[in-house]
Structures are given as structure tokens and as C-alpha cells.
Amino acid sequence: xxxxxAPGAVCAHTHLYSGLARFGMPAPAREPENFVQILxxxxxxxxxxLDAESLRASAFxxxxxxxxxxxxxxxDHHESPSVIEGSLTVLAEVCESLGIRALLxxxxxxxxxxxxxxxxxxxxxxxxxxxxxxxGLVGLHAGFTVSDQTIRDAGExxxxxxxxxxxxxxEDRADVEDARRRGYEGPxxxxxxxxxxxxxxxxxxxVHLTPDQVRLAEARGCWLVQNPRSNEGNRVGYxxxxxxxxxxxxxxxxxxxxxxxxxxxxxRVAGEDAGAAERLAAxxxxxxxxxxxxxxxxxxxxxxxxxxxxxxxxxxDEGRLLTGDVEAITAHAREQAARLWRRMAEL
Length: 347
Ligand SMILES: [Zn+2]
What we know:
Elements lengths: L2 E5 L1 E6 L20 H15 L2 H17 L2 E6 L10 H12 L2 E4 L2 E2 L5 H13 L7 E3 L1 E5 L5 H14 L3 E5 L3 H9 L5 H7 L8 E4 L5 H9 L3 E4 L1 H6 L14 E3 L8 H12 L5 H16 L5 E5 L2 E7 L2 E5 L2 E2 L4 H21 L1
Parallel strand pairs: 2-3, 3-4, 4-6, 5-7, 7-8, 8-9, 9-10, 10-11
Antiparallel strand pairs: 1-12, 12-13, 13-14, 14-15
Helix pairs in contact: 1-12, 2-3, 2-12, 4-5
């Protein structure tokens, strides 16, 4: 029996709202041909179909599995257009109850309801309840679904709340082309020009940033988050230029939060040069910037997660979750998933 102890893993970009997808999400009626169609036909249908109960079930299942995999912090990016107000309270309650550390935001967007929808999304970012394990960020979905004014408002709110922005950047070429049509060099330059990127801001993906843009993000103190399984699944390309920054963490973009699996995917697509260990260490630095130094620990036995301690509380022991009944959580998630697929079909 070989025991080893290490700091808990950080999933630096994910979506708790998509946690039910593993319970047999039906394929879209028409096969998507590009990234924007994947969003329109899959994820933007799922997010509109969510209500508070399915969201809670999704988050419970996702967080329970994350803790059992030795992930002690999730950096979440949330959207549920049919239930904006109170959605971050639902997520915060789940994280506190199961005992995972979390950075939460609502990804404000104008894609369903225009500027008013964006305003409501930003307002929700104010309402993350104060708690030892949870901190709020300000979120934007992505440049291509918001106006310049919403980006300015997000930057102002981040300064007012003393926090940072969390946003998808250059995940697909469509985001880059959109920023150019609006008269900017690219989506990163647009966020900078509109004053929305305080140092420490979190930029998910960056697949289509040039080496100079990646260096610019680093110089501005921003984090980039690579999500290899998601990038491969959405066929948006490999984020090769991220090697030009030392501030790059690893995320899962809604895939399960087992960071060993994500690390293996990075190794598979990029080989040893990808620097998976550095990416995981960077995630812990990102968390320290928001929480101060944390002492979250994972004990493994022959590689398998045995004990997990978050903020001084033992949440997994003997490989079992102490803070929730996993079987009941999974069963409830499965029930809610079936209901969610019916709602999605009606949209
Ligand atoms: Zn994402």
C-alpha cells in the first residue's frame, strides 16, 4: 500500500450547469457543422431548458464526482437564461454543502434577451452569497454575444466588487472574426480597450490567439485556461500558442472534473511538451490570487483518491464522500436529466 499526499487539483474553467449531460443527453435533430451550431443546437438549448431544480441536481452530481476525483476547487462559468436571478445562490449552496471551493460567476450575454438579459446576468454576479469556500467573479459569455456597453459595464462591476472577469476568448475563429467586424484587432484587444480585464482575469480557451496576443494576456496579468478534451470535441483546433505564457491553467469546460483525465488528454494531443504539470500548478496559483494560500489536500493510495480535505474539512474518506449520499445524488440527477431532455425537445 503506497500512500501519497498532494495539493488538491484545480479545475480552472468549467460549467456545473452541464453536469446532467452524462445521463444520455440526446443528439441534436440536425448534426452541427461548426462551433456556433454546436452552441445553438446543444448547449444554448440545454441552458434555456434549465430550471432551479435541474440546475441544483446537475451541480450536486458534478461537484460530488469532482471531489471523489480529488478536485478541490472549481472555477465555474454559469448560464441559465430561464432562471438568472438566484442561480448563483443555488450553485453556492451546493458547493458549500458538499464542501468544494468555488469561484462563481454568471456569464452575461445578449443572445436571448438583448441588453436587458446582459444587465440581469451582471446583477446576478453581485449576489454570490459570502461564504468561506465561495467567491464571486464577474462573467461574460464571450465577446461575440455582447455589445461594447455590456463589456464596459462588466469591467466597471469587476472594479466595484474588487474582483476579476471570467470570459470565453477566441475559442473559435467566429469570436475573432466578430471582434474584427466590430473594428478591433481581436477579442482580447476589445476587452482591453473597453477596460474589462483587471489583472487576474480568467480567459477560457484562447485557441485562436496569436503568440503576441498570448504574451499580451500574460503581460496584463491574465490567466488563460486550456481545455483539451473540449477543444478536441468541438473541433476548434489545438491551442498551441498558449506555450507563450506562463499563466496557463487547465480546465475541463463542462467535461467531468477529473484533472488526471484532462491531463492525460493534454498529453495525448500534445505530448510531453504541453507542460501538464505546470498547468496544474498554475491553477493553484490562480486560486491563491482569489482566496490567499489554501491548504486543500488529497491523499491517494496506489494512485486512487482516498481522502480529500478542503478548507480544513474532510469531505472524502476511505474513497467515500462524507458530505452527501452519492447514490441518492446520482439517482436524482438521472431523474432530473430525463425531465431536462423533455424540456429541451420542446424548445
Ligand atoms: Zn466554457
